[in-house]
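Data deposition worksheet. Section B asks for the primary sequence of the deposited chain exactly as it was used as input, without tags or linkers unless they were present during the calculation. Section C holds the resulting structure in token form. Section D is free text for depositor observations; keep each observation to a single sentence. Incomplete worksheets are returned to the depositor.
Section A, Depositor: J.P.
Section B:
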Amino acid sequence: MRWVVYFCLILSLAATSSTVRAATQKDSYLEMARQGWSYELRTTMIGRDLSIPVHINGRDLAGASICMVGERPNAGSLDVINAFRKLVAHIYGKPVPMRFAGHSAEDCGQGRMIVLRLYSGAPPNSALSDDLNWMNRTYQLGLPKDRFYAASSPAMAQTFFGRRGQGTHILVQQTAVPGSDRLEDIFFRSILVEELYQSFTFGMDILQFDKQGPFYSKLQEVPLNLNRLPWGSRAFKKALLGTNPPGLCEFDVLMMHAVAKAPVDETTMPVFIDFIDDNFDDLVAATRATLADDTYQIILDTDCRPALD
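Section C:
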């Protein structure tokens, strides 16, 4: 869906299209890695303090906790979150603690964390604003004070960098009645998986202009204009599920292993791609061992193709 790093709207990618015409799997994966991870930070949220440094490396989140606020996760959401926590713990080597704090992010306390707000129904824009303004005070993000924020899609994740560390906020809609509708179950699982993955890896959306593929990643998205479709409509959910795979593909898990293992300062640097190139066979072996573990199956897509393809 939508993932933003502040200071940053990502304007410059290493490539503008995910049309990969490589002859081998390695070439294809390296090109995808360049498109999803080799980006530059060019602009910032209006009014933000530009003197605050930014550091892009998903490994920085190893050992960070998840603090849930808003609605409690339904059974489907909880299964996804727990499977993802186990996947991160397996690959990054540190557990991902989780707790439900209540209605407000202020109850999350201090420390390295990802604030995850779940909701059903209309977007909780007032609560979202309260969360982000609290994060602004807590991490000294340098954002405009007491600003009002509104959800721009059913799922959105934002990572901010401040003088007291970085903070990530994820807002994701969930179904009010899990298990009652297959389309809804797949849709809400898909958007939750995507926001969690991007928050822990700093991988960016990759435009996939050819609807027929090939698809290698959950991050690939066929561009669509859905502005005229209400978020809650079946037409919206069907259209969005047709734009990318509903779960993590082999490439996505490989990139988690690469982020965890690469001895680089930032994963946006060219040396990160060099590491993947030099260690590709070992990364593939580690990835396939991970994929063979049934623990993570609910968040994976071994076919790597849109759900309604």
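Section D:
Residues 6-23 have pLDDT under 50 and may be disordered.
Helices lie at 25-37, 75-92, 125-139, 182-201, 234-241, 250-261, 270-278, 280-291.
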